[in-house]
Write a structure and sequence with these properties.
Blueprint (H helix, E strand, L loop, with lengths): L2 E7 L6 H9 L5 E8 L6 H5 L8 E5 L6 H9 L6 E4 L11 H9 L5 E5 L12 H18 L11 E4 H4 L11 H10 L5 E5 L15 H17 L2
Parallel strand pairs: 1-2, 1-4, 2-3, 5-7
Antiparallel strand pairs: 4-6, 5-6
Helix pairs in contact: 5-7, 5-8, 7-8
Length: 230
């Protein structure tokens, strides 16, 4: 199976080299790495030029900043692999765990896999209490609407078979992508699995971007895509 990794990227000049190197050395059958620069205001565009001659790495640029969901929408249009992995451009999620995420699909059990920060015994950096509470509450609200029993709906690590992702049209531009895509896969006849993953969370001083407004938008997206846009 050919694996495509999609990396939305905004102001990650200090981490993008490291994450691309880790993705390329994750020990899986990598087909392509698709990076979408969401109009970064730092030196990210200059750093991305390093892969101009790398046939495995494809870089796309937004002329205006639109958000993570919009960057993923652009990336999904370019994928040609059989399996698509979402990877953030920071270092909170480690590509070395791709084999864990891919195992349920490769064994023929799953069509979609979520990597959960809240299950299993893998390393987990201790950071913000209220972020954890918010994530759990949003996951609970999403589960009540979708009738899934996920432990971490908001996780970055999501893996899709290509034929599943091709049935989904992404509308959200920012972090509302997570509840939107969860709502939409819950209505497709597919098998969804979760696996425990590590989490190397970063602080706002280290570049974390998600805030309380994104939590409000997530609630809106949960209601919108589970009730009004079924």
């Amino acid at each position: 199976m050919k694996i495509s990794v999609v990396i939305p990227c905004y102001n990650e000049e200090s981490t993008i080299r490291t994450i691309v190197d880790r993705v390329k050395n994750a020990g899986v059958s990598l087909h392509e790495v698709i990076i979408v620069n969401d109009c970064s205001a730092d030196k990210t565009p200059e750093v991305l030029k390093e892969w101009d001659d790398d046939p495995m790495v494809k870089v796309f640029h937004h002329k205006v900043n639109q958000g993570k969901g919009a960057a993923l929408r652009t990336g999904f249009k370019q994928v040609s692999g059989d399996i698509i992995i979402i990877q953030d451009a920071d270092l909170e999620y480690d590509p070395k765990e791709y084999p864990l995420l891919l195992e349920p699909i490769e064994s023929g059990d799953a069509d979609v896999v979520f990597g959960s920060r809240f299950m299993g015994g893998r390393p987990h950096r201790v950071v913000y209490f209220w972020h954890m509470v918010g994530n759990r509450l949003l996951t609970l609200a999403s589960n009540m609407m979708t009738n899934l029993n996920l432990t971490d709906m908001e996780t970055c690590f999501k893996v899709f078979k290509g034929e599943i992702l091709s049935q989904i049209s992404i509308e959200e531009d920012r972090f509302g992508f997570e509840p939107e895509v969860t709502a939409k896969v819950s209505r497709i006849d597919c098998r969804i699995y979760e696996v425990g993953i590590s989490y190397y969370g970063r602080t706002y001083a280290e570049g974390k971007k998600i805030g309380w407004r994104d939590g409000v938008r997530a609630i809106y997206a949960i209601v919108k895509y589970n009730i009004f846009k079924r």
